[in-house]
Specification:
Blueprint (H helix, E strand, L loop, with lengths): L4 H11 L6 H11 L2 H14 L10 H13 L3 E4 L7 H4 L7 E6 L8 E6 L5 H16 L3 E4 L5 H9 L4 E4 L13 H10 L1 E4 L12 H11 L2 E5 L6 H11 L3 E4 L10 H8 L3 E2 L3 H8 L23 H14 L5 E2 H8 L3 H13 L3 E4 L3 E4 L2
Helix pairs in contact: 1-3, 1-4, 2-3, 3-15, 6-7, 9-10, 13-14, 13-15
Length: 366
């Protein structure tokens, strides 16, 4: 769906509004039909949720961001537009938009993600670079996160055939700083994408969102050297939730950087020693589309009056606590129609009183 220039501005304003994440954004669009109408309703909904209205981004600031990205040679691609990556569009709640810098046509090709340790071993980096080159020669774009170690090696290996960097800050921010030369090559020969505002420095809370995009873009995720609790394992978990394949490279039991990958193998990941191990799994499915989302999309809170929503707000708030609970379990506990529960959650999130977690879970955020 093509958006008018004004609707594109309002789309970006809504995506940049505090307390509006991908789930809330999708529900607002589904409920009100357009970003223009939704953003006008945000203050009212936040007040109904018991909080102050979030500060809406200034329209002039948003227009300036669009112009600045264009001056860099990039552009924004909204989730309803034809150029939006099909893998991300197939997610139950895709990111509302991507800032794209470089050769956007790369995003139309099939991808494999490769992630791993920042403090990777020399052998790990060498293996990742060779594997990325082989997968690129087979026709796959290699997506990674432009971090030190395995990410850098993967981008370098696939530079000649096509590589995509998903960054946790703005697409104009080079992080880590020592990867300036790699950033310049990615901008000239590959593609760099992010859902963060221009100029935004990477922050810890941004990396899970970055990792979700990395796995969502790709048919599968290859993990090369990952310690327990690492961001690479978060990417692998997202891949499983998104019905993507997970591949893992085995390592020495004596190396802490192999603990995570070896655990993935015990849990059913595909043991990967060569590109053929990856291609053997992907070849049967490369001819089709990305398939259905990992779970059924949530019902949308449309056609509900404020009175109907008020009736269920107390039971929803009472059922919420500091421990995350799945939304479908919350609906069961409250014993009320799902659209009403979703409408209350929408208002609470806009009011800053609800936190969302991976796996379609929510918790009270006082």
């Amino acid at each position: 769906m093509a958006l008018s220039d004004n609707e594109r501005v309002q789309w970006l304003r809504l995506a940049r509004t505090p307390n509006v994440g991908p789930v809330t954004f999708a529900q607002l669009i589904a409920r009100f039909g357009s970003a223009t109408t939704a953003i006008a309703e945000v203050p009212r909904l936040a007040r109904r949720g018991g909080g102050e209205a979030p500060k809406l981004p200034d329209e002039a600031v948003i227009r300036r961001e669009i112009e600045q990205l264009a001056a860099l040679g990039g552009r924004f691609v909204m989730s309803t537009e034809a150029d939006f990556p099909s893998g991300l569009a197939a997610l139950d709640t895709p990111p509302p938009l991507l800032a794209v810098l470089g050769h956007g046509v790369i995003l139309k090709r099939e991808m494999i993600a490769m992630v791993g340790a920042r403090n990777a071993s020399a052998l790990g980096r060498k293996f990742a670079q060779r594997l990325a080159a082989d997968l690129g020669e087979a026709g796959l774009v290699v997506a990674s996160g432009m971090a030190r170690g395995i990410d850098t090696a993967a981008h370098e290996g696939a530079m000649a055939t096509g590589t995509c960097a998903v960054v946790a800050g703005g697409v104009d921010v080079v992080y880590p700083p020592e990867n300036r030369a790699l950033y310049d090559r990615l901008k000239a020969e590959g593609v760099i994408v992010s859902e963060m505002p221009l100029g935004e420095p990477p922050q810890a809370r941004h990396f899970p969102r970055r990792n979700r995009i990395i796995s969502g873009l790709a048919r599968g995720v290859v993990v090369v050297e990952a310690a327990e609790g690492s961001g690479s394992l978060i990417t692998a978990r997202f891949a499983l939730e998104q019905n993507r394949e997970v591949f893992a490279v085995p390592g020495s039991p004596l190396d802490p950087r192999a603990k995570g990958t070896n655990r993935l193998l015990r849990e059913g990941a595909v043991l990967t020693e060569t590109a053929e191990d990856v291609l053997a799994v992907l070849k049967p499915i490369l001819g089709g589309g990305f398939g259905e989302p990992a779970r059924e999309p949530e019902a949308t809170p449309s056609h509900l009056t404020d009175t109907e929503i008020d009736r269920v707000r107390t039971s929803v708030v009472e059922a919420l606590g500091p421990a995350p609970v799945r939304v479908d379990e919350l609906i069961r506990l409250c014993g009320v129609p799902a659209p009403a529960v979703l409408a209350v959650l929408l208002e609470l999130e806009l009011a800053g009183k609800l936190a969302r977690h991976p796996g379609n879970e929510v918790s009270w955020s006082p």
